[in-house]
């Protein structure tokens, strides 16, 4: 979906659907003479034009307020020692809503923890702020609780504030890698890189704004790590924020429609057979299980693509101007083994979960065919029930891509013989160092420096190409799963459930108004599904 082009059309369609659902609710209330639960109405009040909400969390005095002041240049933001933020405090930055919160689990005021917890639950994205050396067991437990227990891992980035220089310290980076790799429950631990770590000094940036000396300003600005952090945050919001913001209200509309459907059918007990009610409840169960499965597969895919990105980053980091062909072959093989395991695990997870749902669908269709006689009831044969077959065929791609991608990477890196030629030149210069020094004098040092810079630039370009290859592979995998799994599931389950909702016993309902309401709700549900598809 081209967000810049289609976002207006999406908002317009969503508002139309929301109004239609509201009208359907009024019709149900008037027809059945009931008052619907206010929580259903609350679900409708979702505005997709709201800004993506990014909440900053972390221990007190980590500099959350300073970072937000660095971003917004808001002079009213108070910063300093101790806890400065007392409440949920939103600010605007680049058409996003960024939120400051009190320190987490400060132990000083329970209301601060409650405010932060509420903000986290409402957040589209999280920025977890810490400082060098402060990721103690208590803070690590809270980080893991957010990432894994609350399922926020794919919506979080990690920021280390109060750094003395720009970029990441190798020692600190390695320490964090080891800390975040520690087991937490039974969860597979995500690598540090998946949290897009940034290493900054908001204080240096703010102090630089008061500096009149341009040389000092430039030095402080560079050391603050501001530019890289802003790019990371902007990319993070673009990659993760908008799609989540758009999908959430559509799912809420679907939930409201599901509840409406159940209310209407349940109110028709005097006009429908009990067995029909039982079967309709089974259909609702199928639909709910499918939604859980779809979300589960989305999470599994997200985790797999993140790990593939990490493999590419690690492999690129293994390649330097000093890497030998033998070492490189070993690195490539290890990367291939890791990628293969990730894809095999994803494929197994998809097969098992789809087959379980497929068996459930077959059972319900067979049960329906034995208990209900309807002229337009869908077939109960394997063709209509087997939603897993097309899925598994689509996933064959997972079994073969790894080798070809790695082969391509290996060929790219070593097809250019400049690397080996450079080694030969280096050996030649070393063997004839005396002659070169006598003949060229100081020029030898200049040539040597140029040569070294050339080697470094060549290695840098190849590392970039390696990362790009794995990014492309992750994107290919994502497309394969969406085309080969998620869409067939939607066609095989959602369409079938929608058809069953319309046809199971609806022709036998004596109340035409009930039938009309039910068909309208089913039609609106289909429209919600189409709108969700437009985001793929």
TrEMBL record:
<dbReference type="InterPro" id="IPR027417">
    <property type="entry name" value="P-loop_NTPase"/>
</dbReference>
<dbReference type="InterPro" id="IPR006073">
    <property type="entry name" value="GTP-bd"/>
</dbReference>
<dbReference type="GO" id="GO:0030488">
    <property type="term" value="P:tRNA methylation"/>
</dbReference>
<feature type="coiled-coil region">
    <location>
        <begin position="7"/>
        <end position="34"/>
    </location>
</feature>
<dbReference type="GO" id="GO:0002098">
    <property type="term" value="P:tRNA wobble uridine modification"/>
</dbReference>
<dbReference type="GO" id="GO:0005737">
    <property type="term" value="C:cytoplasm"/>
</dbReference>
<feature type="domain" description="G">
    <location>
        <begin position="54"/>
        <end position="162"/>
    </location>
</feature>
<dbReference type="GO" id="GO:0005525">
    <property type="term" value="F:GTP binding"/>
</dbReference>
<protein>
    <recommendedName>
        <fullName>G domain-containing protein</fullName>
    </recommendedName>
</protein>
<dbReference type="Pfam" id="PF01926">
    <property type="entry name" value="MMR_HSR1"/>
</dbReference>
<keyword id="KW-0175">Coiled coil</keyword>
